[in-house]
């Protein structure tokens, strides 16, 4: 691989690694520094972590408020200071024997637009200091509630102590806080025991690859096969193939006329089927100005 590798990889993050750890591993495998990710995933969690390489890192601005889907397990009977299984118990464990109906009834309060407090052990900043640093020092963590949207929260099973769920949430939603708050609502306490992210917008678990897959593909000289087809990126924007002259202008950041897309606000401009040249926005009539040149 060369320093000019551009593309998107969907990594199936293993538990125990931070999102930055994954980026560091990918940098080492592909042999380039220009690597980033599209949405932090807690170390305990597994699943979809989209990773962008080269010029594709410029697309990160379009994923700042991405909706995400998860599946996971909440354990009732004990809350923890981190709101997940890695934290210290916040008190003695209570005996619980909850029914699926009880959990579903209590969870109804946590769907739709809700106000949610981030966990004290989080990356939120207070006066320039991350909350988790204050929490580890035993200092007070005064976080403000934030409005988030839980578009779907479905509990599919419960064995009395643990309940398995599927969720679809807006950007900024903490599933750890949801587990903690649900445990409080039920009077039993609770924490997030398992979490797997199954999608970040258009990126899904079905098209993800492990870091081991990545290493094996690199050794076999077929790393390019693991990159997501560029046509699958930002599918909400119409795609147009630019002619030779228009493509040349776009490469230099110049505006071009795209008459067939006079009704579109933003388009993806390709050279051929695979090379994504730019994301362009309509400025007037059929004239489009590149917003991001790749």
- Name the CATH architecture of the largest domain: 2-Layer Sandwich
Distance between the termini: 18 Å
- Biggest pleated sheet: 9 strands, mixed
Report the top-level CATH class of the largest domain: Alpha Beta
Number of helices: 6
CA radius of gyration is 22 Å
| Average pLDDT for all residues | 90
Order of helices and strands: EHEEEHEEEHEEHEEHEHEEEE
Number of strands: 16
Beta-strand level of the residues, as a percent range? 25-35%
The share of residues in helices is: 10-25%
Number of domains: 3
What does this protein look like?
There is one protein chain. This protein has 294 residues and is an alpha+beta fold. The chain folds into three domains: 7-63 and 202-229, Pseudouridine synthase (2-Layer Sandwich), CATH 3.30.2350.10; 68-196, Pseudouridine synthase, CATH 3.30.2350; 237-293, Roll (Archaeosine Trna-guanine Transglycosylase, Chain: A, domain 4), CATH 2.30.130.10. It is 19% helix and 33% strand. The chain has six helices and 16 strands. It has helices spanning 19-30, 100-107, 131-136, 175-186, 211-220, 244-251, and strands spanning 7-13, 35-37, 46-53, 68-76, 112-116, 125-126, 129-130, 146-158, 162-169, 190-200, 203-204, 239-241, 256-257, 266-271, 275-284, 287-293. Strands 1, 2, 3, 4, 5, 8, 9, 10 and 11 form a nine-stranded mixed sheet that branches. A five-stranded mixed sheet has the order 12-14-15-16-13, with helices on one face. It has a two-stranded antiparallel sheet with strand order 6-7. α1 runs parallel beside α5 (211-220). It is elongated. The model has no long low-confidence stretch (mean pLDDT 90).
């Amino acid at each position: 691989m060369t320093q000019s590798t551009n593309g998107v990889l969907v990594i199936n993050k293993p538990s125990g690694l931070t999102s930055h750890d994954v980026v560091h591993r990918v940098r080492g495998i592909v042999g380039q520094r220009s690597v980033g990710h599209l949405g932090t995933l807690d170390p305990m969690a597994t699943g979809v972590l989209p990773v962008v390489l080269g010029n594709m890192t410029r697309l990160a601005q379009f994923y700042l408020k991405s909706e995400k889907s998860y599946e996971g397990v909440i354990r009732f009977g004990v809350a923890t200071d981190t709101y997940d299984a890695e934290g210290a118990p916040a008190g003695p464990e209570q005996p619980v024997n909850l029914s699926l109906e009880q959990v579903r009834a209590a969870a109804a309060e946590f769907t739709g637009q809700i106000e949610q407090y981030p966990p004290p052990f989080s990356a939120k900043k207070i006066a320039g200091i991350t909350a988790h640093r204050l929490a580890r020092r035993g200092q007070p963590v005064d976080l403000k509630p934030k409005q988030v949207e839980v578009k779907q929260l479905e509990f599919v099973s419960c064995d009395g102590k643990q309940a398995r769920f599927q969720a679809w949430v807006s950007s900024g939603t903490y599933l750890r806080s949801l587990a903690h708050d649900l445990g409080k609502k039920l009077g039993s306490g609770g924490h997030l025991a398992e979490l797997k992210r199954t999608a970040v917008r258009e990126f899904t678990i079905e098209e993800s690859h492990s870091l081991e897959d990545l290493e094996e593909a690199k050794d076999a000289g077929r790393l390019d096969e693991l990159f997501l087809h560029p046509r699958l990126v930002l599918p909400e924007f119409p795609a147009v193939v630019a002619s030779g002259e228009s493509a040349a202008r776009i490469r230099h950041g110049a505006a071009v006329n795209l008459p067939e897309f006079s009704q579109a606000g933003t388009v993806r401009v390709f050279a051929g089927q695979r090379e994504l040249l730019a994301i362009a926005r309509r400025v007037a009539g059929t004239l489009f100005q590149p917003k991001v040149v790749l």
